Amino acid sequence: ESLSAGHDLRWPEVVERQRSSDGTLKLLFRLEGGATFESVYIPEARRRTICISTQAGCPLKCAFCLTGIRGYQRNLSAGEILGQVATLMAEPEAADPALAERPWNVVVMGMGKSGHVGRKIAATLASTGTPALFVHPAEASHGDLGMVTEHDVVIAISSSGESDELNVIVP
């Protein structure tokens, strides 16, 4: 009770659910103040994938991107990011006991530059008590990757898709 007195412990509100014939489920969330963002559950044969957002809108305003044209509203808080994960995982399609053996695959959708997204992922993980580090690509070439052990999970973010440099790190 004392924790809830000083903090807002609500998940973002689901205002729309869209289901496709292949079992994909897209949720539209609305935040206090009216900002919206989407998350998606994708059923796959070997795993369950959820795609989560880190921002409502985008600050970069790229002419080719609808999210950018809509404009930046704000970054999501760590609680809002975790709330969409919990909400998607609790949806009947995803929570089906018959799927319990399938591992989860979490894809973080971030609009804008990959560095913005990487920093937000690291901050969200750190807020849960999970050690996290964002390493800028220029810094990684100077030995910072030596901090990564074989037991760590590495999230490699690429703004241009597959590259020779990325394939060396993540074959």
In short:
This protein is an alpha+beta fold.
Q: What topology emerges from the helices and strands here?
A:
Layout: H1 2-6, E1 13-19, E2 25-30, E3 36-43, E4 48-53, E5 55-56, H2 66-70, E6 74-75, H3 78-90, H4 92-95, E7 104-109, H5 114-127, H6 137-140, H7 164-169
Parallel strand pairs: 4-7
Antiparallel strand pairs: 1-2, 2-3, 3-4, 5-6
Helix pairs in contact: 3-5
Q: Would you give an account of this structure?
A:
It is built from 7 helices and 7 strands, in the order αβββββαβααβααα. It has about 170 residues and is of the alpha+beta class. It has a 5-stranded mixed sheet, with helices on one face. It has a two-stranded antiparallel ribbon with strand order 5-6. The N and C termini lie far apart (about 45 Å). The model has no long low-confidence stretch (mean pLDDT about 75).
Characteristic key phrases:
171 residues, alpha+beta, 5-stranded mixed beta sheet, 7 helices
- What kind of sheet is the major sheet? 5 strands, mixed
Counting DSSP E segments of at least 2 residues, the number of strands comes to 7
C-alpha termini separation: 47 Å
- Poorly predicted spans: none
Question: How do the strands of the widest beta sheet line up side by side?
Answer: 1-2-3-4-7
Count of runs of 4 or more consecutive helical residues: 7
**Which structural class do the helices and strands define?**
alpha+beta
Strand content: 15-25%
Order of helix and strand elements from N to C terminus? HEEEEEHEHHEHHH
Query: pLDDT average, as an integer?
Result: 74
Q: How does the overall form come out from the CA principal axes?
A: globular
* Helical coverage, percent range: 25-40%
Structural Rg: 17 Å
